[in-house]
Design a protein that fits this description.
With 369 residues, the chain is α/β, with parallel strands linked by helices. The chain has 2 domains: 155 residues, Rossmann fold, CATH 3.40.50; 162 residues, Rossmann fold (3-Layer(aba) Sandwich). The protein is 38% helix and 13% strand. The strands form 5 sheets. Strands 11-9-13-14 form a 4-stranded parallel sheet. The chain has a 3-stranded parallel sheet with strand order 3-7-8, with helices on both faces. The chain has a 3-stranded mixed sheet with strand order 4-5-6. Helix 5 links the parallel strand 7 and strand 8. Helix 6 runs antiparallel to helix 7, helix 7 packs parallel to helix 13 and helix 13 packs antiparallel against helix 14. The longest helix has 22 residues. The chain is globular, with a radius of gyration of 24 Å. The termini are far apart. The N terminus is likely disordered.
């Protein structure tokens, strides 16, 4: 009788172990073209690489996080990442490794509870996704991070893929519609402006893995593209080609002589005696620029901070539009617009908190005297 009972018990146990395997996994194709088997229902994840946790926050999935990379623990006076400001709890979460995708499999395996999926942006940065998956036994799903102006479809596909994995498809649709709707609005407001009436402009002080001076710019700066402005750093012959971050010469900026100048406030991290604002105020070459002489220099919110800040980019576009074409944006209060964008994208207004450490605030006319 005991043997029969033991046999039945063993059979039941084996069935209980085997049954969950059916219908509990699914296979997706990630943005790197990799076939990845993931659980049917995903409730715990980690994010590796620049912008990855930003994506998750946009999708309202930040509560699924069980560990973070070192950028979230960094103690710094400055921080222009709206997703992180809206989620101070990230600073107290266990580490998964160093920032920029340099994950630590041992730290990941020590997490409790364990993540069911690892999301990774910039697959060629830091730990190889296939090796990370092999060492942890946790599926790694690669996403893409891209330019909001040139490769918006790539961004949307990544958000939709992440949403498919974590069950946030409705939020992904609302998010993509929100972004696209604002970009369409920006373009429509300025589409009818004749080419000979469009203002020439330049943005300096763009951050790129740290703060930079006035010569640091973005030829494909999305805010200018969205409002049909003429970016002097984007020559007509370059249209259609991928435009990367650039450091241009001082002589070239003087030769361009843009009508309006914008300065990314991330440059102020360099201190009072360095960076774009100091250079504009003290360099005779920049003092010769018409925009400087006429006081047409304005500040915008940081474009890059652990990769591109999509919400800030849209907010900057509305401010730049207000400066360049005030009659087309007379109904826009740039500060209120920025807070509405942040409230939707990261769940709360963050503008005041984000800019309080900067010596110069965004959305201001720069005092040059």
């Amino acid at each position: 009788m005991n043997k029969l009972f033991s046999a039945i018990l063993s059979l039941l146990i084996s069935m209980c172990i085997a049954l969950p395997a059916f219908g509990e996994n699914r296979t997706i194709t990630d943005m790197a073209g990799r076939k990845v088997e993931i659980p049917e229902k995903v409730e715990r994840v980690i994010c590796s690489g620049p912008g990855c946790l930003r994506y998750l926050t946009y999708l309202q999935g930040q509560n699924m996080i069980v560990g973070v990379d070192s950028i979230e623990h960094r103690k710094t006076r400055f921080d222009a990442r709206p997703y992180a400001i809206a989620n101070p709890q990230f600073k107290e979460m266990p580490l998964i490794g160093e920032f920029r995708g340099h994950d630590n499999p041992e730290l990941i395996l020590g997490l409790e509870p364990q993540p069911q999926v690892i999301f990774k942006t910039y697959k060629d940065m830091g730990y190889d996704p296939d090796e990370l998956q092999a060492k942890t036994g946790i599926p790694v799903v690669c996403l893409s991070y891209a330019s909001l102006a040139a490769k918006r479809d790539t961004i949307y596909k990544s958000l939709q893929l992440m949403a498919e994995v974590i069950g946030k498809q409705e939020r992904a649709k609302a998010l993509c519609d929100f972004i696209e709707g604002h970009i369409t609005d920006l373009k429509n407001r300025t589409a009818a402006i004749p080419k000979d009436k469009r203002k020439t402009c330049y943005v300096g002080g763009i951050a790129q893995k740290g703060p930079h001076g006035f010569q640091s710019t973005e030829p494909a700066y999305p805010p200018f593209r969205f409002i049909n402005a003429i970016n002097v750093a984007c020559p007509p012959e370059e249209k259609g080609k991928p435009l990367q971050h650039a450091n241009v010469s001082k002589e070239q900026i003087v030769a361009w002589n843009p009508e309006i100048i914008f300065v990314d406030i991330s440059t102020s991290q360099m201190g009072e005696n360095a960076g774009s604002i100091y250079e504009i105020k003290t360099d005779p070459a920049y003092q010769s620029l018409d925009a400087v002489a006429s006081g047409k220099v304005y500040t915008v919110l940081p474009y890059n901070w652990y990769s591109r800040n999509y919400g800030s980019i849209i907010a900057d576009a509305y401010y730049a539009g207000k400066v360049l074409y005030p009659e087309k944006f007379k109904d826009i209060d740039p500060t209120a617009k920025a807070e509405a964008i942040y409230s939707f994208m990261v769940g709360t207004p963050v503008l005041d908190t984000m800019t309080q450490a900067f010596s110069v605030k965004g959305f201001k006319k720069l005092e040059l005297n």
